[in-house]
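Support request from a user on the community tier.

User writes: "When I paste my structure tokens into the form, the page sometimes reloads and wipes my input. The last time it worked, I copied everything first. Here is what I submitted, just in case something in the input itself triggers the reload:"
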């Protein structure tokens, strides 16, 4: 299929702000699906509420635009009822790890075959620039006018600790790596988490005097290194990117089917 076959062109132009990184994530997702050669009917995309969640409206798959923080709960129901489908869940940092944090850790614990894409722009963009669980201390936000004092989550470490069997991180600057990682995440049989560090020049960038979208993307290039890079040993503040976890464990839907068979006495 051609790239345009995966897009609902009637909903364009999109509503994201100029310079927003979410459009780059949309591009990476399309490229990954195109390389997988999947039919649109093989994919279900489930999203919650927020700037990032608008991505489901632009993709011509089966889509569910649900309520804030509950995308993974809806996606779990979809996957259990139609385990043959590939379920992809794009979320923002607040949607995934604030109100949705409980669903996130339990989806990882169950190892259900869902691909969770966490677009980390470190802010609540749609509702006015409030700080999120990933904003980090010392950063400014509309709800932290004198700087934020909350420590931020590490998405990779949280996903790993909760039991996700595929965990990766990339950025909107590293577009080819992003497409490759999303492709691997979709192919993985188990709960996959892909953190994409993304820029929000409108709220996070402006509040923290980080410059334009290009400046923010350049900073992501400079502050990240591949896993195992010598630069990380020299500068512990650098952030690693790549695939951190890729292991095989029993997948939830398969195990659930065994329970059904056992309950039916092997019939």
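"...and here is what came back when it finally went through:"
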């Amino acid at each position: 299929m051609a790239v345009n076959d995966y897009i609902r062109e009637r909903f364009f132009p999109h509503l994201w702000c100029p310079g927003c990184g979410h459009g780059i994530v949309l591009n990476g997702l399309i490229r990954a699906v195109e390389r997988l050669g999947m039919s649109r009917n093989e994919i279900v995309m489930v999203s919650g509420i927020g700037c990032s969640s608008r991505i489901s409206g632009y993709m011509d798959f089966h889509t569910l635009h649900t309520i804030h923080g509950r995308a993974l709960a809806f996606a779990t129901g979809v996957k259990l009822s139609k385990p043959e489908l590939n379920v992809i869940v794009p979320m923002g940092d607040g949607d995934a790890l604030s109100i949705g944090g409980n669903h996130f850790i339990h989806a990882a614990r169950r190892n259900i075959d869902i691909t969770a894409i966490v677009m980390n722009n470190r802010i609540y963009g749609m509702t006015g620039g409030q700080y999120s669980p990933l904003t980090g201390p010392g950063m400014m936000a509309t709800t932290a006018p004198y700087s934020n004092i909350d420590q931020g989550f590490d998405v990779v470490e949280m996903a790993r600790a909760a039991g996700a069997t595929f965990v990766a991180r990339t950025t909107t600057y590293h577009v080819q790596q992003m497409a490759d990682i999303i492709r691997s995440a979709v192919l993985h049989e188990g709960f996959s988490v892909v953190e994409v560090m993304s820029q929000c020049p409108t709220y996070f960038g402006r509040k923290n005097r980080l410059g334009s979208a290009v400046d923010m993307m350049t900073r992501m290039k400079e502050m990240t290194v591949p896993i195992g890079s010598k630069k990380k040993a020299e500068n512990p503040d650098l952030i690693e990117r790549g695939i951190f976890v890729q292991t095989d464990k029993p997948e939830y839907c398969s195990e659930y089917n065994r329970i059904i068979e056992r309950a039916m006495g092997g019939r």
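Agent notes: The reload is a front-end session timeout and is unrelated to the input. The chain has a mean pLDDT of 94. The CA atoms of residues 73 and 221 lie 34 Å apart. Escalated to web team.
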